[in-house]
Amino acid sequence: MSIANYLYLSAILFTIGAVGVVVRRNAIVVFMCIELMLNAANLAFVTFARINGNLEGQVVAFFTMVVAACEVVVGLAIIVTIYRSRRSASVDDASLLKR
Amino acid sequence: MINSALEIGTTQTPEAVLFWFLAPISVLAALGMLLVKKAVHSALLLAWVMISLAIFYIAQEALFLGIVQIVVYTGAVMMLFLFILMLVGVESSDSLTENIKGLRPIAITAAIGIGGLLTSLIARATMSRDAIGLAGANREGNAFGLAALLFTKYVWAFEVVSALLITAALGAMVLAHSQRVKSNFAQRDQSIARFRKSSLSEAAGLPGSGVYALHNAVDVPAMLPDGKAAPSSISGVLEARGDMMESKKFEMKPEKEEE
Amino acid sequence: MTTSSNLVWLIALPLLSSALLLLAGKRANAWGHLLATTVSASAFAIGVVEFFAMQNRDVAARPVTQKVFTWISVGDFQVDASLLLDQLSICFVLLITGVGTLIHVYSIAYMSHDRDRRRFFAYLNLFIAAMLLLVLGDSYLNLYVGWEGVGLASYLLIGFWNEKPAYATAAKKAFIANRVGDVGLSLAIMIAFATFGDVTFKGIEEQADQASTASMTAIALMLLLAAVGKSAQFPLQSWLGDAMAGPTPVSALIHAATMVTAGVYLITRSNFVFDAAPTAQLAVIVVGVITLLFGAVIGMAKDDIKKALAASTMSQIGYMILATGLGPIGYAFAIMHLLTHGFFKASMFLGAGSVMHGMKDEVNMRKYGGIGKYMPFTFITFGLGYLAIIGVPPFAGFYSKDKIIETAFNAGGLKGVLLGGATLLGATITAFYMTRVVIMTFFGNERWGHKDEPHESPALMLIPISLLSVGSVISGFLFYRNHSLEYWLKPIVNPAGEQHLEEFLKPIVVSVLAVTAVIIGVSIAIAKYRGEISSEAPVKVNALTKAARRDLFQDDFNEKVFMRPGQLLVKKLLNFDYIALDGLVRLVGAVSVGAGQSLRKLQNGYVRSYALMMVVGVLSLLITVWLMTS
Q: Which of A98, C6, C303, C426 could form a disulfide with C292 if both were Cys (CB 3.0 to 4.6 A apart)?
């Protein structure tokens, strides 16, 4: 089995995450799909680190995790705030910028 | 499952078995995360995907990262997700009908296109690439190797990211903070309110729950000087629930006096 | 080739005077006319001096040139603003300045009551300058400048009283008809340049035998078109009648003696071109014959004295054009007739002006009658001009017209008989309508409509008329005697001395025939108009008269065939421009607006559709990468 299979897996997970962002309406599920995409990218980085023989890929994956954590914190705080004022967690309800 | 002698470009059989076992399951889990109705189920399925990814990291000799994935990502981030789901509405579920025309077909087509293109691009990119493997980089251990990179070459990025973490924490606090609408009814205000009542019988505060020789509990009311129980000394909930105990039971009977 | 430095003053003096009079404004009102007349007279004086100097020189040394400045110098193409005074141009210079000065003098009195008299003289001087440039230019390009200049001056002078819209329209009509001809001149210059690389007369004459007949014919036909426009020949003759809207001195100078003869000058000057293109010469003859009959027929039915004289001018120039088409030997006779015609036609126009002056500016001959005994001087001078034009020997017109008729017969064969017959017929009709004019004006019952007797005109008007009448008496004989004009012009128009035509009829026979034709015409006219003439034009007339009254339908034809389709075409083109071309532009705008409207629907406010757009963007990016690395 070639190592590229990990990369293919990463691509598939990324795709599934992308579809999820567009299709789901619950804000938190959308967020989770974004997390899935980030994780897929991490997998690819780790695999590339292995292919290239140095740890730079893993360092990048590490930073990605940190940033993803920050993003989750702030993003969920925002969702909670919006939920408190609007009583709804659906993404479609924030549509005031329509034509 | 750590391969110390890698064949270039390919893996050995144990890793292959691991991969071919876990990968389809993670893909199914991811699909499930996408398709299930309840958000909590999505969160749990995502947690499964993350754990399997951690296993993959470990299999690829990224030990530190694998453990961090489990501890930070699955442990902290996913749990955070679940907490917020609790707050925001566990019962909330998406309806199945789509109200933006053409969204689903286009999204699925685009996604399949992206997937296919990515796959073929990856195949093109890695066609003649040989994997060097991390045997050399991990010579003194994975954590050591990572630290060597992190604190020398990437120290600036490291510092900036930590500043980011602090900022994110502060941001979350600011966002979650809600202003008091009414003033806080603190101790001083309570004392003033007690003295302003019509009678001063409770100016010194309510009696605490009964303290007896034989029983000392929250559910036993104190006894008043005239031998009656003082129901205000325990929580009204207990009385309403019928959990209040008789205080007479626990009275200490005086010993028979001689002469 | 001798050079001189005087030639430029011939043009510069009138031009400067014109500019001065126009720019000085009202301040020059008191002396403007005097300055203009003096300038014109000085030009005449220079012309006379040059003439005598030329006569005293050898034949080969007679032409005089002067280069004024280098006009165009582009690569290999160089055109100098140069002047050429040779035997041909000196005739014209003397005619223009001589007759011009006399008419200036006449106008001092004729226009004395007009408050725009200064402007009139400015335009007259402008005309003199332009016409002199026309005849003195040494290349087609220089001639063209003068050509356009006289067209401009004609427009300005015809429409001089432009408060009346009809006069302004007449001026426009003249200018437009001229313009059609000018296209011919431009094309001729272009073809000449393409063929020879040179536009000077000398240059083309030297290279004439190297060019193909086809290109020579093309040039010649284009020159003929120009001449037709300027000289009011068929089919561009409709403007001459309406040009009588201008003051009478204008009609005398421009539309009798000089501008309308520019076409004849052009063809004569281009004799080397026409002699190399027999087909074009045939066209010239045809145009000449048609016009001489056309003008004569129209002249028979005109009751407006000036329009009758205009039709007569048209017809006489037809004679001249016919003569130029008859080969090298005809040019001299054309010029001879041109010069004599200048005298007698100008004198008749001035005489008509004098009659109008006495009849309170009435032009309708039906309202004249019996003026002869009240204005004897005008009567006598007009009569001398009349005798000259109909060709009574020994007056001027007889000699020149007679030579043309003779040359026409000598053209040989059927062509000669037809041409000769046509010219004789023209002579008869000319005699008829001129007699009609004279009878209606000076004889017969008085039909004035009022009782005031017409008085004779002032001396300033009568002196020029009389001088011109002297010319109409003696000039023909002077040009004819000893073939003086023929020999004078020979180096220019007939250098090889060729073309001895076979005599078809002996000259004396031709003369007798001509005189007989004249007598017939006069008799018919006297017979018809001897009795009472009505003061209203009769309504029941035959078809030919009706047609002649309507200028043989030329205006109607022009309107139906050129004007209305032209207007329709313009309207269609405007429509096309609005719908198609503007529509294209508006389509661009509409497309942008439509695209904007459709794209607006993408902004539906839903975050998910924006996310979808991002996904699609990533997809396209990947496609690009995929294509670039494949």
A: C426
Number of H helices, E strands in chain A: 3, 0
CB within 8 Å: B11 and A2 = yes
Amino acid at position C298, single letter: I
| Interface with chain C: mutation pick from A14, A16, A19, A21, highest number of C CBs within 10 Å | A21
What ipTM was assigned to the predicted interfaces of this complex? 0.91
Predicted confidence at residue B7, as pLDDT, reads 40
pLDDT at position B252: 67
Give dist(CA C314, CA C255) in Å, integer.
9
pLDDT (tens digit per residue) in A48-77: 999 888 899 999 999 999 999 999 999 999
**CA dihedral for C504, C322, C134, C481, sign (positive or negative):** positive
Buried-state track B30-50, b at ≥16 Cβ within 10 A, e below 16: bbbbbebebbbebbbbbbbbb
Tell me the H-state helices in C481-600. Answer: 484-493, 507-529, 543-549, 554-558, 564-576, 582-600
Q: Is the peptide bond before C394 cis (omega within 30 degrees of 0)?
A: yes
Q: Which of A37, C619, A51 is nearest to B118 (CA)?
A: C619
pTM of structure:
0.65
Of A7, A67, A71, the CB nearest to B126: A7
Chain length of chain C:
630
The phi and psi torsions of C83 (rounded to 5 degrees) equal -115, 145
List, for residues C185-223, the tens digit of each pLDDT value.
999 999 998 888 888 888 888 888 888 888 889 999 999
Phi, psi of C64 (to 5 degrees): -125, 135
- The 10s digit of each residue's pLDDT in C29-52 is 888 889 999 999 999 999 999 899
Say whether the peptide bond before residue C165 is cis (omega within 30 degrees of 0). no
Phi, psi dihedrals of residue C71, rounded to the nearest 5°: -90, -60
Euclidean distance between CA atoms C138 and C82, whole angstroms: 6
